Amino acid sequence: MDELNFNGVIIKDVAFDKLMTYFDFFDADVSNVLPMQSTDKYFDYSVFARQRRLNHKPFSYTMNVMSEYSGKAIVRMFVGPKFDRFFDLQFYKKYFVEVDQYLVDFTAGKNTFVRNSRDFYWSVKDRTMYTDLYKKIMLGINGQEKFALDMSEAHCGFPDRLILPKGWTNGMPMQFYFIITPYTAQSTYEKADFYDKTVSCGVGSGMRYYDTLPMGYPFDRVINFNYFYTKNMYFKDVFIYHTDEMKMNQTF
């Protein structure tokens, strides 16, 4: 229980926006598959591959926490299936997926945190299409547009559009699970000379994690129900709705 509990920290409530999923048509530029005799004609042709993809409307949630503690802490957020009986979590815990993890600063008293799905730590947006990037480079070379040398995008991560399951028209019952744990700074890792974080996405270095708790914590172990439910945890029942309205490359 001492490992799970965070003395003086109580999650009072969590409120979500309406959770809505939909399918959209996404046009991916595959123009670079065309054989070209000269790059001068590259922009005269465009080939797009259309695919139907699951997406969701961006959402936010508000968490209210009472704390006797002042300092840094880590919030972990999981999404998983709705279960009815207290002890069913022993079976369903393997279906809870961590979708966010972030650092917060507590002050003594009431603390309110608002988090948007676009800021979730493990998710990434669509990358810039090759043709768009090529156009920016060529315009920069020709002096027609300033090219941003510091432009960077995540090259690994879970697609933001797949954070939520499809849902049902009349609402699919699901649960979000939250746990707040004390923040302890990690030790410095010694990395091999051949290690490249851009290739490995930081895996194996520990640099992508705020602390040293294992992946999936606290669902990484057999649950002892005599001690598991503590006040720094919170289960939030939600409904995920789905609309059949199709959207073209929709951006919210």
Automatic annotation (TrEMBL):
Gene Ontology process terms (BP): energy homeostasis
PANTHER family according to UniProt: FAT-BODY PROTEIN 1-RELATED, LARVAL STORAGE PROTEIN/PHENOLOXIDASE
SUPFAM superfamilies: E set domains
Alphabetical list of Gene3D superfamilies matching this protein: Hemocyanin, C-terminal domain
Pfam families registered for this protein in UniProt: Hemocyanin_C (PF03723)
Gene Ontology molecular function terms on file: nutrient reservoir activity
Listed GO CC annotations: extracellular space
Segments forming domain Hemocyanin C-terminal: 2-242
Protein name: Hemocyanin_C domain-containing protein
Taxonomic source organism: Anopheles atroparvus
Lineage: Eukaryota, Metazoa, Ecdysozoa, Arthropoda, Hexapoda
Superkingdom of the source species: Eukaryota
